[in-house]
Each structure stands twice: as C-alpha cells, then as structure tokens.
Amino acid sequence: MDKNYIGFHISADMMEIWYFRSLKINQKKSCMLTDLKENFTNIFEDALIEEINDVGTLKKVKEGEKLIEIGDYVRSMPLLISGAIKILREDDDGDELLLYFLERGDTCAMTLTCCLGQTKSEIRAIAELDTTLIMIPIQKMEEWTGKYKSWRNFVFQSYHERLTEMLETIDSIAFYNMDERLVKYLQNKQKVTNDSLINSTHQEIAYELHTSRVVVSRLLKKLESMGKIELYRNSIKIVSL
User: Fold this and answer.
1) What's 176-238's CATH class?
2) What is the third-level CATH fold of 6-172?
3) Is the pTM of this model over 0.70?
4) Exposed end of the chain (fewer CB within 10 Å): N or C?
5) Cβ distance 241 to 179 under 8 Å?
6) Which regions in the chain score pLDDT beneath 50?
7) Taking the domains of the chain in order of start, what are their residue ranges?
C-alpha cells in the first residue's frame, strides 16, 4: 500500500480527533460563559467574565468528594456555580469542626490566603452536595486585584463574610449550649441544601460539632419528643425549628 496514502489517512484521523476535541472544549467554554453570566453579571465587569472564561477550568464534584485536604498546596481558587461545600478544621487528635459552608456565588477566603501566600492548606473542603465550580489559576488572582475593581471588592467581601461566619462559629462554641448549637447546625444544613431532610448520621454530626455521638443522639431524641424533628436511619427530617 502507498505510504503516502497511509499517511493521508493517519493525518485525516488525527484531524478528526482534533476537530471533535476542539468542539468539545468550545462547548464547555460556552456553557461556562453562560454559568458565569448567570451567577456573576451583577458582580464582575464583562471583560473580567470573559477573562475568567478564557483561563478558568470547569470542575464538577460529587457529594462527599474531597476538594482540598489539610496540608495540600492550593494552586487555584474556586468560584461556586452550584451546590455547596463545607469547610472543616481539624485538631491534633483528628477531630473535625465545621467552620462554614460555601454556596452559589461564593469563594473561600482560606483558599485565597493559601494561594496568595503559597502556603499549605489548613482546612479541609468537602462537597456537601453535587457541586459545579470554576477553578481560577493562582497567577491571575493578584493580577486581577490590580486590574479590576469588581474583583478586588469581591475578594475583600469574601474575606469579610468568611471572617463573620468563623466568628459566629467561635461564638457558638463559647456562648451556646450544645442543644442550641445543634439546632443552629440543622438550620444551616436545611438552608444550604434547601431540603428539610438532612442526610447525616449522628456520628457525622458529632464530628462536625466536635462533640460525642452519645450527646448528639440524646439531644436529637429530645428534639424529636418536642415534635421539632423526625429521626430516621441515617437521616433527620426537620418539622419545625
């Protein structure tokens, strides 16, 4: 068989692969641009949205999947398009404490700090729901801070909101009884998931509230006897909190 003929067919096959790969990338970029405009038009300038679309990477994570682990170097910053992420801190014994949730339109101040300081992560980030994010390369963050006022305001506002949420967490530990903390936890879960059915075990709740399963189970049974919740296997239905 003619070598030129073989070479032509190999080249044609490669061109076809390249074409469909490019088409798939363009489709993803088009979807990402639509998501950006739906979620950030009132926050970012059009030029910034176009830049985010050019350099950002669309990422989808399943409920329960880990995005960031303690000790990791953070190479990109997340913008949440949909879903929710919980941010956790861990003590020397390996026990966790829930700091705050990230929702649609949010980013993580702790991630920003690690990116800009090029330090290891001190938090763990886990998808609370199936979540879609756009990951922004670290090198663009500082550039956009000087270039776009809207980006600068977004970063400062994110710091403020996350700091406020962490102060609320500290206040709840210092000043609230465990039953009050549990109620607040369930209310936050309902708000974030937009669902009255909380799919968490007593042990998982205990981890996130930094207490024991026995204490959580006792307080949940108390809430059930008051008609505020209904307890099921590995889930809790909120009736009235």
Assistant:
1) mainly alpha
2) Jelly Rolls (2.60.120)
3) yes
4) N
5) no
6) 1-8, 10, 19-20, 23, 25
7) 6-172, 176-238
